[in-house]
Request: fold
Amino acid sequence: METIAPFIEVIDEINEAGGEIYKLCFQCGLCDVVCPWNRVRNFSMRKIIREAAFGLSEIDGEDIWRCTTCGSCPSQCPRGVKQIDVSVALRRLASEYEVFPAAVKPARTARASLISEGNPLQYDRAKRADWAQGLAVKTYEEGMEALYFVGCYFSYDPRMRKVATATVDILERAGVNFGILGQKENCCGESIRKTGSEKVFRSLAKENIKTFIDKGVKTILVSSPHCYHTFKNEYPEFMVNFEILHMSEFILDLIREGRLELKGDYDKVVTYHDPCYLGRHNDIYDAPRDLLNSVSKLNLIEMADSAKKSLCCGGGGGRIWMDTPQAERFSDMRLKQAQAVGAQVLATACPYCITNFEESRLNLEFEDILEVKDITEIVSEMLT
Ligand code: SF4
Ligand code: SF4
Reply:
């Protein structure tokens, strides 16, 4: 076992990195009871907190990288311990010393790509808006109704580009005057921050904020709950405030205001998975369900661990870039939960969830029994 530095120095470094709240912990272990890791392997956030309190943290092991920042244990802790802050503080130390276990190394590659290209996926910045070729998407100009901040996965990933296209279809049919930033858009930085790369986060955030201000942006529409979270709750650290709307809220408003009319029936059994960063972190549970319920004949049913108890897909906290053995994937469990209630469609509203679910769908050979859809894809299907 390698520890980072003797005692008090470690404690000071963790305090400085933002994790001092661990001092409140009285080791009740409730965090371990609710943590999804303990459904697939032994993992103890309680132990991580205890080691941090004594300055005995191991930074060369994988455990400090496991937390998906799902938000379950902070919402349950009787002492208000901010477990995610402790994890991020330890990751900041590990990043500073460049200590990355093998399974975590892809996150370092993502960091390099963010620094050079503004996205974690190793694609060219110059190709950021290629997904919109052939679509009537404008570049954002001051005075437009809203900026559509597309996000990295929707811009580059072939599966997620379908969601961006569906979103544009909806916005255009509702007559929304919107634009995108194209190459001027950078990753929002939410997930790289949770891996401890604070400087990279701050650089991405500052560049985005400068672009928003230069372009006179007031309202920002996002498809990713991770963009939503950081714009709404973290960018205000830079003394700015923009109106941030998740696409589920905005599209629901379009329907309620009569700007968007859905046609036909969606005669399928659908279950909705609450992304951690939309639900637990931002309390948006109703809008996606109301949106799905506005679709004729769509039969929305709840699966186990829904809403506040939603089972994490495994992709938050930068885990989307790390290697997880198949037997330890939360997304496999989630698909089985959807199947157990007889769902034909697993709907959600997050690029990490969809990426993980699509992979599980292949691995579990569920292709013929369960579709994975973003809610905008379902709405888009109901427009013709
Ligand atoms: S739930 Fe809170 S008080 Fe209990 S062990 Fe976890 S961090 Fe400590
Ligand atoms: S935030 Fe979620 S993944 Fe992280 S330790 Fe708590 S329960 Fe586990």
Summary: Residues 264-381 form a domain with the Rossmann fold fold (CATH 3.40.50.10700).
